[in-house]
Amino acid sequence: MTVFLLLEFADTRDLQLLHFWLFLGIYLTALLGNGLIITTVACDHRLHTPMYFFLLNLTLLDLGTISTTVPKSMANSLWDTSAISHPGCAAQVFLFTFLMSAELYLLTVTAYDRYVAICKPLHYGTLLGSRACVHMAAAAWGSGFLYAVLHTANTFSLPLCQGNSVDQFFCEIPQILKLSCSDAYLREVGVLVVSVFVHFYCFVFIVLSYVQIFRSVLRIPSEQGRHKAFSMCLPHLSVVSLFISSGMFAYLKPPSISSPSLDLVLAVLYSVVPPAVNPLIYSMRNQDLRDGIRKLITWTSI
Q: What 3-state class would DSSP assign to 49?
């Protein structure tokens, strides 16, 4: 098999072009928003702290995620095709799995950063020094890479005997498994089950971290202190909620309610929408980041 056929958003030319322009707008929004945050954090020395270091990594992952899926879908709609080569499909599976899993691990690390900053502020410099931050970020990226290598190699080593039509607008593991022979896919399913437990552990760690955080915040005597603590945590909590809820529903929903159109909508919700709206969420309640972006725009317009 040399070619896979991706699911089309529409079967008429006008709707295909509408899909192209809509995705182009979302993609440019994601590039602009994430690019602004990356440039601001890199150029503003006041933002060279652990929190913004992890934010820089998360925005890089968001850019990579949306760049893995959206451009190919846009090109297919523009040129009225649905084909993707076998190496291209494998590359999409690898990059998407790598970036999404690394983002989950980094969101877990960021929850730990928020926990230490609020619950153990006197030990913040010791527990989250520059070397510790680099090691945690490297561990998140490295774990995502190994996870993606394992799943991609395992998935594409399976014999495929159910055709070549992928019921999604990009290549992802569950849709590839549907094409495998019925007695061959259980090996990858077993690996996926182990992965679910690892990801569930990350989810539990994030939840427990925020339980401790909110208990500490409610004990802060001053209203200004509570407001500052909530401003630090709510953007991260919003991103985590959007990322995990849409992803879990997409992968763990009952087969009885599964359909190509529902899978398509859910895939857009967890792979396309977050990278575009995360920059807005991160900067909405963060005065330092907003000031940095304002300075950057003023400096570039001079």
A: coil
Q: Tokens for 222?
A: 């001053």
CB 23 within 8 A of CB 73: yes
Nearest to 156 by CA among 100, 91, 90: 90
- The span from the CA of 33 to the CA of 46, in Å, is 20
How far, in Å, CA of 206 to CA of 109, rounded?
9
CA 271 to chain centre: 7
Q: 229-274 pLDDT, tens per residue?
A: 777 777 777 777 777 777 777 766 666 666 777 778 888 888 888 8
Of 286, 268, 270, 293, give the one whose Cα is nearest residue 32. 293
What one-letter code names the amino acid at 185? Y
Residue 288 Cα distances to 111, 194, 295, angstroms: 19, 40, 11
**SS3 letters across 4-28:** EECCCCCCCHHHHHHHHHHHHHHHH
pTM for the whole thing? Answer: 0.88
Amino acid in the structure at residue 53: F
User: Do residues 171 and 89 make contact, with C-beta atoms less than 8 angstroms apart?
Assistant: yes
Residues with Cβ < 8 Å from 65, sequence gap 6 or more?
A: 96, 99, 100, 103, 271, 274, 275
Backbone angles phi, psi at 161, to 5 degrees: -135, 20
Separation of alpha carbons 275 and 281, rounded Å: 10
Task: Please give the full DSSP string across 219-240, using - where no structure is assigned.
Answer: T-SSHHHHHHHHHHHHHHHHHH
Residue found by looking up tokens 């070397």 in the block = 131
